[in-house]
Amino acid sequence: MIMIDDRTVSPSAAGGRSTRADLPGPAPVLASAGDRRSGPRPESTWRSRVPAVMGRFLQLLACTLLLLSVPPLLLPVEIYWASSYLAVFGLSPEPFAFNAVLLFVLGAGLVRRQKAALIATIAFEAPNIVTTVWDLTVAFSSEQFTVDAVLPDLVAGSVAVVVIGVLITSRRAFSAHLQPAAHRTAGVVLAAGLGLAVLAGGVLAQWFPGTLTAARDGWLWAVSASIGLAPLETLLYNGDSQPAWPLPLIVSSISAAALLAALVILLRTARVSRPMTASEELQVRRLLAESRTDDSLAYFATRRDKSVVFSNDRQAAVSFRVVDGIALASGDPIGYESSWMDAARAFVQQSREYGWAPAVLSTTERGARCYERLGLHSTGMGEEAILRTDERSVDALTADPQLSAAVRRVRRAGYRAQMRRQDELTSAELQHLAHLGDLWRGHDVERGFSMALSRFGDASDAGSVIVTAHDAENTVQALLVFVPWNHDGLSLDLMRRSPDAVNGTTEFLISWMIDEAASRQISRVSLNFAMFREILVRGERPGAGRVLRAKRRILLALSNRWQLDSLRRANERYAPEWRRRLLCSDRNVSPGRVWLASARAEGFLGHSILDRRGHRRAFLAQGPLRPDGFVDRVAEIGAPVAAATATVRRRGTHLARAERALAMQAAGVDLYPAAVSRTLRIADLVAGSGSPDSGSIAGRVLRRRDHGGVLFLDLSEDHTVLQVIAAAAQTARYAELRATQPGDILSVTGTVGHSRTGTLSLIATDWQLAAKSLHELPGRDGLVDPETRVRQRHLDLAVNADAARMIRARSHAVRALREGLLEDGYLEVETPILQSVHGGANARPFRTRINAYRTDLTLRIAPELALKRLVVAGFPQVFEIGRNFRNEGADATHNPEFTAVEAYRAYADYTEMRHLAQRLITRMAVAVGGTTLISGPVGGVVDLAGTWPVLKVCDAVSTVTGATVTIKTDRATLESLARDHGIEPRRADDAGHLIERLYEELVEPATTVPTFYIDFPASTSPLTRGHRSVPGLAERWDLVAFGTELGTAYTELADPFEQRSKLTQQSLLAAGGDPEAMEVDESFLTALELGMPPTGGLGLGVDRIVMLLTGATIRESIAFPFVRPAGAGGSAGS
């Protein structure tokens, strides 16, 4: 449910539960003010109306008898005497309750067109004809014959003849059959109940005989009272010869209860429909995938508590559920519209065959016309809010001041939103969201039927879209679930919010989702349903009539419970397109009965006694009752559809734009010319760098403002924007220019000038289309969702100046890095990326295979060994800036592929490389920001021009732990320290590894200013020379800033004997299953045996340094960071 302010338009007291079905629902029954039962009236005869007319008449007589069954003390005795005239209908002169129930049952059966009721009514009336003929024969032979004596018999017989004649003539209208299995049980219950009534009546009549004169009369009276039949000679019963007063009521009540129990058994079985099978659901899904529909409720036809009936050609279907004898369908028929009529006819015929009254909830006007032709009548229910995702609709979202204020409030609170397909979430994430949804729903019952799926997280609904709002701590605070609507739309299924969420969270989530939807190729979103909107809107207009205003006042009063008006107003803030929805029902069924069944189906009312068993079956059918492989079959259904739309997707995806582009090409327009005019750069014009007063520019249209005769375009080139002014009187092909869209690339020729407000502009005289865009650009805020930004990086860079600025900053930094090394005498080289031996660093590699040589290869994790071989070869100063690959986790500081620089200098050591690292990073900072001052991620400014601290690793660990730690500290002490600080030692950890783990867990994260940590344990540095003065340590340093390692350097190990020993130890670890251990590289060792001079080596992570200098994340600092493939599970950034 849409909420303007969560305190005022909350779906429940808990504030967190809402589904699309939580609409006001079928509570009040008011026709729309302008509602007319329009459409062609179906062909009808008086015979088709006989069941309803006859049934209602019998039910009226039943109500009369029920009223007359009350004690004589409450009504005048004349009324009871007059009731004896009911004998003309074959009824007892006494108003027994049994007769009332019997007539009501027969009437209900006739209304439902049940053939059993037809037969029972004929059987009920036939004896009147026989007795009338017999009585008339006896009367005519009597000498005391008078008309008054035979008049009651004539009337009773005539009524019976007419009733039987009409029923036989209209017999084809009674098409409903009862289930055979129910007759036997119902008959046993009825016989047992009547036997009990006769037994009780006979016994009680002996004890309280009243005016009965013989014991035999008591038993005859009991039979008559139990089954409602009177002796034939007393058509006008005078009230003599009966037991004491309470006995007739007691006996008839017992028999009536028996009849009612039999009715419950009989109708309960008849009213339960069979839920759709797995094969039927697959057929329904196939129709949804293959046919395009304007009905946003189509996907809800797959609810598993519904039955389904297909057209003869199985190209259309209607899904429904039976509630209280009403067969409730919802929405339009699904499938191809050419077969709708056949499917709807099958639904209506099946309903009448089983005695159900057909009804359709929330159908569109197109669907209503189909049902009207089959005899159903339609009446307005309300209107559906549909949001478009084009630029105009997105702009309309910002027009409402209250909506904009709510969105700003939520953003200031640090909230962000995320949109994912269900199949992109892990099982754990789905379970967590399902738990939150249940928690926020509180004690309210699960609602939904026509506009809810009620199976969140089901694996067969992989195409559902889940939108979540996260607070600053990344806690989920709101949840929206949408089901597919064709292939370019979404339909709201579930909407829930935490009671602790910031007010306006739902508005923020919907606004963000609509803004984001266009970039996801979603063109429309069905949001919510406003009941009786027409009355609420027209009733508040000036000049509204008294009746209309009275209806509106009733609805406003009901809004206190069902939020009719508040929901309507909340929807209107989004400036939606309103689409009318109607209710179709059988003309012979009361609207109240249909609305009552609808309320029970939607969950607003409890289920009736007759329907509870059916409801339990339907509820259980919603569970995981699909066979193994069902989900795979569902996925196969979507595959042909994806293939059919692949052509459009390769052209650009957005169907409307693609169709327009194809139409333009068919008209001879060159959408992608080989060249266009461009004599000026937008950046030069904006900078005012002596550009001429006229010429041609080219750029992408970011925004457009059409004022009819004047068109303003914002063109962007190289992320610099210039306004273009086109006027109908001055610009060639102005009408075609007005048809261009944001995203198109244009070449515009004109003169440089200014607008009335003084904005620098190009006054257009001519133009040319340079490239037609088949995608819409995102809204004013650009792409906000981090996942979308990395998945559609090209789009983010095209519209996000900050993202583009980051790419340029990286380029400047890499250039400064390269120039610094070149100026220092280093030679830039390139070394292989494909390597046959895993080496250069301890990390898990990516593995591949070269088929030409039938050899397994790895992508390099570091160029170190190849660069050292060049040093051996006589190149004293070499470096490489290149891509490295490590098959490890991706997070805020790690990417599977990354850029690093490695530099090696002969006759240097790790101290000289430390000075080189500081010079290079300082130079990069100046290139990026023009200063050596940088900002930390949590505030504060650091000047890189100063002296950077240098600390020994053991000293740093000692400071953090409060205990003295040296390379000579025994392993037991180090293990105790590790456990004290939450670090669990591993069996393979020696003292050196424990010191490094303490450093990584305690020292590195706490470091802020750039700091060199030197002299690491030798056991953790297999390629490093041992410390020249402290045994057990290695001449190695790590550079850390703001908790992130930026680089490392060694005094390289040049001893081939020691290097072979260490690499052999590493290879043994690799053979033992360590995926990060290095292998023995014989080519490197052979080169080392030739002799390598004392050498210092340096490695710096370029990505991390750019992060440090710009304050960006690692993904923002890379042009195209790695993105988890869609459908692989997890988010893009995981």
What does this structure look like?
The protein has 1134 residues and is α+β, with helices and mostly antiparallel strands. Among the domains are: 49-270, no CATH class; 278-375 and 604-637, Aminopeptidase, CATH 3.40.630; 672-771, Nucleic acid-binding proteins (OB fold (Dihydrolipoamide Acetyltransferase, E2P)), CATH 2.40.50; 803-833 and 861-949 and 1009-1110, Bira Bifunctional Protein, Domain 2 (BirA Bifunctional Protein, domain 2), CATH 3.30.930.10. Helices cover 42% and strands 19% of the residues. It is built from 36 helices and 30 strands. Strands 1, 2, 3, 4, 5, 6, 7, 8, 9, 10, 11 and 12 form a twelve-stranded mixed sheet that branches. Helix 6 (180-207) runs antiparallel to helix 8 (246-270) and helix 34 (1056-1071) runs antiparallel to helix 35. Mean pLDDT is 78; it is low at 1-44, 78-82, 230-239, 609-624, 639-653 and 1127-1131.
Present the secondary structure layout.
Elements: H1 46-68, H2 77-82, H3 97-111, H4 115-140, H5 147-169, H6 180-207, H7 215-227, H8 246-270, H9 278-290, E1 307-310, E2 316-323, E3 326-330, E4 334-335, H10 340-353, E5 357-363, H11 365-372, E6 376-388, H12 391-397, H13 401-412, E7 416-421, H14 427-441, E8 465-470, E9 476-485, E10 489-497, H15 505-517, E11 524-531, H16 533-539, H17 546-562, H18 564-572, E12 577-586, H19 591-602, H20 612-621, H21 630-644, H22 646-651, H23 655-666, H24 682-687, E13 694-706, E14 710-717, E15 720-727, H25 734-738, E16 745-754, E17 760-771, H26 786-791, H27 793-799, H28 801-823, E18 827-828, E19 834-835, E20 847-850, E21 855-859, H29 864-872, E22 877-885, E23 897-906, H30 910-929, E24 933-935, E25 941-943, E26 950-952, H31 953-961, H32 971-980, H33 991-1003, E27 1011-1017, E28 1033-1041, E29 1044-1051, H34 1056-1071, H35 1082-1090, E30 1095-1101, H36 1102-1110
Helix pairs in contact: 1-3, 3-4, 3-8, 4-5, 6-7, 6-8, 7-8, 9-21, 13-15, 16-17, 27-28, 28-30, 28-36, 29-35, 30-36, 31-33, 32-33, 34-35
